[in-house]
Design goal:
single chain; three-stranded antiparallel sheet; binds NADP nicotinamide-adenine-dinucleotide phosphate; TIM Barrel; 10 helices; alpha/beta; eight-stranded parallel sheet
């Protein structure tokens, strides 16, 4: 079983590290977060996943979110202070989402809002037109939410800010974070194409998409589109078979929340077969889950979060775990 793969010009292990849990609610202190990223890199992680929207929003009315850029700057600082080969590390980020407080407090026109900053954003870093309604995603376990704002001008501006946050001239890989019901999907893809053409990004990806959107994106972005990032885990098994579609098109499939996530509740019984195998192996069931995911598709990358060095060390060991045919027969096919 090949545990390495090619993504955005990097030949790297197919187990990377999601850094969301180090940057949003429930995050550890910054020093622990840096040590956790260093532990992942020292173990062999060569793909770090972040997003423009990995920060905590401010209370509405308290001014521009002070925390904007937290997650991307954390990744930048971890790489600067790491003693290893920085140029071997693929850093992927996402554009088109922002954080919100629980209450959809977006009623004041931007121009009238006392907390708007000079770029027309409110305290959540949100730019919008007066009276605009936008989609809110609320995790059950959080007082904060997420909001899609994937207008092309917002995506392009935020992508350029991501490069500044990450301290790079060109982003290795930029995903559109997810479809925005208020924006035609072709316009989001057009923004990614423009960013490619202008050299702001080297490669593009898309996230939270169905097969129709994958085809649409491929038609607009062409060979610059290299990855689809969708939810996949034992509790979220990709009912639309987007992984198979990626295989048909030769695209990488990157699974988000590969251990089920940490904010929403999910069906724990889906992990029981993995617990059985783990008990026989004497390892964590999370390691078995990640090893199983790597067997699903030779261009699948999995990006578990970790909130401390022990977790990412444990997870990365999945790259050394060869599941036997007997064990695979006990797990979902
Ligand atoms: N594209 C998108 O829209 C999207 C959405 C969500 C996530 N993502 C990406 O996917 C990445 C991972 O997703 P996620 O953060 O939702 O959740 P996840 O990777 O499924 O992990 C959930 C939690 O499992 C625990 N854990 C991790 N490794 C472990 C181990 N070896 N043993 C025991 N427990 C372990 C950690 O929680 P504790 O510290 O509490 O133990 C971790 O926060 C994110 O960092 C982000 O980069 C993308």
């Amino acid at each position: 079983m090949m545990m390495d793969g090619e993504l955005a010009g990097f030949a790297i292990p197919r187990l990377g590290m999601g850094t969301m849990a180090l940057a949003i609610e429930g995050r550890p202190d910054r020093d622990t977060a840096i040590r956790t990223i260093h532990a992942g890199l020292d173990a062999g992680v060569r793909y770090l996943d972040t997003a423009w929207s990995y920060y905590l929003p401010s209370e509405p009315g308290t001014g521009t979110a002070k925390d904007l850029g937290y997650g991307e700057k954390l990744v930048r600082d971890a790489l600067i202070s790491w003693n290893g080969p920085r140029d071997e590390v693929l850093v992927a980020t996402k554009t088109g989402y922002r954080r919100t407080m629980e209450v959809p407090a977006f009623v004041a026109p931007v121009s009238d809002s006392p907390e708007s900053d000079t770029q027309g954003r409110d305290s959540e870093g949100c730019s919008r037109r007066p009276g605009e309604e936008r989609q809110h995603l609320q995790a059950a376990g959080s007082q904060y939410g997420w909001m899609a704002d994937s207008r092309p001008e917002t995506m392009i501006r935020d992508a350029k800010e991501s490069a500044l946050h990450l301290g790079v001239d060109t982003l290795d890989l930029l995903y559109s974070h997810g479809p925005d019901p208020a924006v035609p999907y072709e316009d989001q893809c057009g923004a990614l194409k423009q960013l490619l053409d202008e050299g702001v990004i080297k490669y593009a990806g898309i996230s939270r998409v169905n097969n129709e959107q994958i085809d649409l994106a491929r038609g607009i972005i062409g060979s610059g589109l290299v990855a689809v990032q969708n939810q996949f885990s034992p509790s979220h098994p990709d009912p639309e078979h987007t992984m198979e579609h990626c295989a048909e098109l030769g695209l990488a499939f990157v699974c988000w929340s590969p251990l089920g996530g940490f904010l929403d509740t999910f069906d724990q019984s889906a992990y029981d077969p993995f617990r059985t195998v783990a008990a026989q192996r004497g390892c964590s069931y999370q390691r078995v889950v990640l090893a199983w995911e790597l067997t699903r598709y030779e261009r699948l990358f999995t990006i578990p979060s970790a909130r401390n060095p022990q977790e990412i060390n444990d997870s990365f060991a999945a790259t050394q775990l060869q599941l036997t045919q007997e064990e695979l027969a006990m797990l979902p096919c």
